[in-house]
Task: inverse folding
């Protein structure tokens, strides 16, 4: 794991520890948007505290949640066990981890921007390759125009072009393409692109 990526993980580790202490587990707007499109076997990449993973499990999905945070993974597995859900979380170094099986749905909300361009696009290709025909990718990334840099350490981040993510899904059925802007600390902005795309082929 690079030193810069390790700093990003630590940024969220601290945030997750606070959220666990206060039991702040509400779905964020991107997770709420994604929820109706999740089905079957699910990979939640960069799952964070697993709010979406656990909700998918409650809806009958079998979920593998993957994150770099030990706090996040521990919370997910504890709650999944308590509720009897088919949800399992693992801690990995996402700067090098590879997907090794097929899934009906792969979610990566707010993950890809934490890598340099080469790794971000490599991981996006890995996601697309490992979705079953008729399955869905649900991706949210930070895009150009974002001015909040507090979670990054150059050069290990990548702001996508505003339409770049959608172009990466050429040939897929784009079910959602959405841009969101949110205020961030220090009078900065976070600019997001979300794409929900269905892979060609039978369901």
Result:
């Amino acid at each position: 794991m690079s030193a810069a990526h390790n700093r990003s993980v630590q940024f969220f580790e601290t945030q997750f520890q606070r959220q666990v202490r206060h039991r702040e587990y509400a779905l964020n707007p991107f997770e709420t948007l994604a929820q109706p499109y999740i089905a079957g076997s699910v990979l939640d990449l960069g799952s964070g505290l697993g709010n979406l993973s656990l909700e998918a499990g409650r809806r009958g999905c079998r979920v593998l949640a993957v994150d770099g945070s030990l706090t996040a993974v521990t919370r997910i597995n504890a709650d999944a066990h308590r509720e009897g859900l088919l949800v399992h979380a693992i801690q990995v170094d996402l700067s090098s981890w590879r997907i090794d099986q097929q899934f009906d749905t792969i979610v990566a909300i707010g993950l890809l921007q934490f890598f340099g361009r080469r790794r971000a696009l490599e991981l996006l290709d890995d996601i697309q390759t490992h979705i079953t025909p008729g399955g869905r990718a649900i991706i949210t990334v930070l895009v150009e125009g974002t001015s909040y840099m507090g979670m990054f350490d150059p050069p290990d981040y990548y702001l996508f072009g505003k339409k770049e993510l959608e172009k990466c899904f050429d040939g897929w059925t784009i079910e959602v393409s959405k841009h969101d802007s949110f205020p961030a600390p220090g009078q900065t902005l976070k600019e997001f692109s979300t794409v929900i795309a269905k892979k060609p082929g039978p369901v």
In short: The first helix runs from residue 3 to 22. DSSP finds six helices and seven strands in the chain. Residues 3-198 form a domain with the Rossmann fold fold (CATH 3.40.50.150).
